[in-house]
## 1
Amino acid sequence: MVIQLRDTLVELIRDEQLKPGEQIPTEHDLAARFSVSRATVREALKLLEQDGLVDVVHGRGRFVSANVGLSVNRPVTRFESVTEMLAGLGYITTNRTLSVERAAPTDEEAEALGVDAQGEIVRLRRLRLHEDSALVVSVSAFSTALLGTDEPADLDFTGSLAQWLAGRGHDLQSSAAQIQALPMPSELAALPEVDGKQAWLVISERCVDAAGRSVLFSREYHRGDVFTFHVLRRRGT
């Protein structure tokens, strides 16, 4: 609901041709206009602030920012799962699990998750497929504590991993990510679903929940002819 309202408010700004410096309607007015709660409006406006489309002047209200003419679709500053991102791009996808196992963490995984380097993590390798062609190849790691009494091999990871984590009490809220151009590991590049001729953009990401706990570390290879990541830059104030 919040995300839908955020997108609706972006359309409102464009449709009504609000200019930088013009005031956004109040929370009360927006709630009445779209038949939603003020709490929903408040959260949607916070997302617009994060996207740099709205400025807040304390004691006066919210105003269209100077960045409104530079808005980009699906900016990298917006947190969303790969499942959400692919759906937003219009792809109907399936997830295929390549492997899921208990494993010793790499130094990078141990640091990102805050786990003992001598302990165990769950490592999940998956393909995100559209018409039997891989769009994303992902390697994800999380603490074995999230398994409870389950074993990795007994669980179904063909759905959204973010939703699975939310069901375990860890709703992912934000992340820190690094974007690089790296060669794909040979064992993944050799898969028949993976087009080795394409360029792949790698996002290494540490995700935290609402309490700020490190829950997930992933390295995901995005097919270069499908994905473009947009950046909106602003001067600090």
## 2
Amino acid sequence: MTEDMKPVDENDIMPFFCGPGNLCFNECCRDLNQALTPYDILRLKQNLGLFSQDFLRTYTSCHGGPQSGLPVVGFKPNPATGHACPFVTEEGCSVYPDRPASCRMYPLARAIARSRETGKIQEYFALIVEDHCKGFGENTNLTVRQWLDSQCVDLHNQYNDTLMELISLKNRMMPGTLAGFQSDQFYLALYDLDTFRIQIFDRDLLAQYNVPLSVLERIRTSDEALLELGLQWVRNQLFGLEMILEA
């Protein structure tokens, strides 16, 4: 399999369409080596109505990044299916409304740069042109930006950008491999959200912090609020940075 990266502007017309009529329909859901972000897992386990630990045990595998020690979570390999996504069917994706960000973005790659002066994020895009994909050449009359909006990817990018900032901070402040217990903290707070919630409310994990009651009420019922708190908790645990807990 070969691929080519072609830079595109967000105002360029998106020359791509994917649907059941494509000759290659579902092919990009096979032979996968796909990393999952914490927000991907949040959405998928909600879609399936599963406790996070059950979802992770059933569908994913985890290994430590060789240089960073950070947990890398992906779909569990299954050679019997040609390493297909566990949620692909003949009709398409069975969890389509909550599919991972990388599925939403394909065939676009996205990179960001944050201005040190203004803090504003600048996005850069490129088309991933692969031999197996036959969706190119279709004129959707949508710009790259309009196509992205149609994929409802902004919320995924918001959480994933925060995650990437955390990883960048780790690389600057703690170069090298994390200790095992630090990797476990990262995995607990960002990937195994329901267990993280249990440790907060049943084992007083946040007892040393002055957590407003309104924040506790939000994280009791909202996975999104819990993930946002988890990102801050990891920053505090790894780097000693103050948690900002707004009521």
## 3
Amino acid sequence: MSEGPEDFAGQTAWITGASSGIGAALARNLSAKGARIVLSGRDETRLQAVADTLDSETLILPFDVTDEAAMLAATKQATEWHDGVDVFVANAGISQRSAAVDTAMEVYRRIIEVDLTAQIAAAQALLPHMTGRGSGRYVFVSSVAGKIGIPLRTAYCAAKHGLVGYADALRAELSQSGIAVHVVCPGSVATDVSRNALTADGSARGRSDSVIDNGMRPEEAAQIIVDGISSGKREIIVARGGESSWGEQRRTPEALFDQVAQRVADGYMETIVGED
């Protein structure tokens, strides 16, 4: 799927985790390109502050991504607004800063629930809408930590690796449907991700670190992401220096994506289902 930036004009982009950081920067970028924006996150006041900076029509749908009933209600509202959702950005998430040996199991459960299970639930809720229209884009914000193992982030890596796996399999299943699936793998971006990260006992870290503070600006990250979506990239590495090298070394080859899609085109899914 190869598209130009102008193709966002008149479309609706729904972004979770939109109150700050990459999510807010994506909202501003897509709004400037003519998209209507649906903003979701837990804090309505902060979402409104983002909405006030946008150039296009905006719908605010605040909810906690782990509240499935609230997510389903928001999905209904988003899909009934104008002509429905054209771009869904699964960006909500929480990170970690703790060694595995010290980390409570509840931290693993919480991060996997927020960063993986809730993202899958939201994507699944939108599937009937997307497949019914035969068009649309899923954008899953994973991480370079979703491609390699990063110390002090065992739970985060587990969740983000899982999100890549779900997205890649979903892309293959939808490869004949007109729906694109993009995986975004940011490295260090100057957001509150480290400050909000969970420590070993589940409490928020409360402070950032120099790697994050000196990272890529959210606006630059958003531009790389939007350019990647526009050009049809299935995996978008958003990183500099060594982190970029890590991501590129673990990038899934485009030829492999093509091979899996071809298997679907050749009837793989129908054959397996027919064997049940």
## 4
Amino acid sequence: MPKPFKRVIEELSKLPGIGEKTASRLAFFILKSDLSYAKNLAHSIVFMRERLQLCSTCFNLSESPHCYICSNPQRDKSILCIVETPQDLAAIEKSRDFRGCYHILHGRLSPLEGITPKNLKIKELLERIGSENIQEVILAMNTNMEGETTALYLTKLIKPKGIKVTHLAQGIPMGADLEYIDEVTISKALKNRIEV
């Protein structure tokens, strides 16, 4: 393959979840497209990198020092939902049920990968809790070992401050058949049952 084509494949394969085969397919797609598409794609990537920054309050992606959520006076600033990534925030926002604010950690504790509290936005979270009138913290971590570890660590830091700490309910997803659900999920669903 010509060097310019190889270079595109190498760069695309650095993206998460993109192997060499997928990178090659994407490179061929870009090559077959109009030159204007390739220019627009390149320009939009550079534009994104130049324009986006992290919100100085919650660390969401933003074009200004404060994101659209933190600068919205309609949001309930006394409830803080802690998530791992901006993608997690977007998933919760899609529900349109949460009217509080967020704090994005930008990862989760993972000693095996060398991710410690210093690598996350935990120090900033504690400073925020100390300076704002936070009444409740919702831990919306992913339900894996690292997410559970992070939630437990944060609970130990936040609970002594007299702030209510909750986590998202866990259990059986809508439309699922019980026979195909794992034991841990069924156990969590039974523990988190609600009265009807």
